[in-house]
Amino acid sequence: MFLDKNKYIEHINDSDQILTMRKILDKVERTLKNHAAQHTDFLDPYQRRLSYSFLNRIQDINFDEEGGYKEAERKTIDIYPSYKSKHDIDSAISAVRVDGSFKFSDLNHRDYLGAILSLGIKREKIGDILIHDDYGQIVLHKEIIDYIIYNFKNIGKEPIKLKEISIHEVSKGIEKYREIAATISSLRLDAVLSSACNVPRAKSSSLIRSLHVKVNWQPINQPSYEVYEGDVISAKGFGRIILHKVMGISKKGRIKIIIRILK
């Protein structure tokens, strides 16, 4: 069956995501033609929102997301014929446990990801990386599990051992962050970012206009964009920030907030 892909994605204005969305539509076509399940690469929440904007309009398919655990950030989408159920299809993801003789609390997400990508593995084949007190877990596509087990031997200079585990053993890791309290004039993105990153408002505005800032994984180029409690903000060169709580108004009429800066 042929799909008019342009029709399904004409509403998507983010040019950086068009190729990814077209690849998902290619999988839909294969499902409709071959009556077999297809699985996407791992997608962030923003990419999944874009995907659902057209998947919900296509007849004769079902789809579900899968990330290893309920709160997973990165998930794949399983696409399969509408007359089948989730239980009729095989999972496309698996997981490995990472052990070593060092303190896992000394490692962060960036350490893991850098070591994995140095093996030539594409980012979209890796799901969440979960760091626990004395071990780590990595969710990944089944198609690369043998490669990663045989080739992933070190994180930095530290030797590690990997073993495949059931996807049902995956659990949310420890989230490390530092917390700061601040007062700001408004909940504009540039104001929150300026306070969180300890940079002048002009600098935060410049970062936003240069498309170096995302809110909930979506690129934002408007400094006046309003953010809300629970929003996740990422800024190039500054990492990831969560507007954890909005505490009310100070005596001077400023907004009191709690910000978490993830490590």
Describe the structure.
This protein is α+β, with helices and mostly antiparallel strands and 263 residues long. The chain folds into three domains: 5-88, Ribosomal Protein S8, Chain: A, domain 1 (2-Layer Sandwich), CATH 3.30.1370.160; 93-169, RRM (RNA recognition motif) domain (Alpha-Beta Plaits), CATH 3.30.70; 177-262, Structural Genomics Hypothetical 15.5 Kd Protein In mrcA-pckA Intergenic Region, Chain A (Roll). 25% of the residues lie in helices and 30% in strands. The protein contains seven helices and 14 strands. It has helices spanning 5-9, 18-34, 45-55, 109-117, 145-151, 189-197, 201-209, and strands at residues 38-39, 61-66, 76-81, 93-100, 126-131, 136-141, 154-155, 158-165, 177-184, 213-215, 218-219, 232-235, 239-249, 255-262. The protein has a six-stranded antiparallel β-sheet with strand order 9-14-13-12-10-11. α2 packs across α3 (45-55). It starts with a helix and ends with a strand. The model has no long low-confidence stretch (mean pLDDT 94).
CATH topology of the largest domain: Structural Genomics Hypothetical 15.5 Kd Protein In mrcA-pckA Intergenic Region, Chain A
Main sheet record: 6 strands, antiparallel
Helix proportion range: 25-40%
Number of strands: 14
- Average pLDDT confidence is 94
Please describe the topology of this protein:
Blueprint: H1 5-9, H2 18-34, E1 38-39, H3 45-55, E2 61-66, E3 76-81, E4 93-100, H4 109-117, E5 126-131, E6 136-141, H5 145-151, E7 154-155, E8 158-165, E9 177-184, H6 189-197, H7 201-209, E10 213-215, E11 218-219, E12 232-235, E13 239-249, E14 255-262
Antiparallel strand pairs: 1-3, 2-3, 4-6, 4-8, 5-6, 7-8, 9-14, 10-11, 10-12, 12-13, 13-14
Helix pairs in contact: 2-3, 6-7
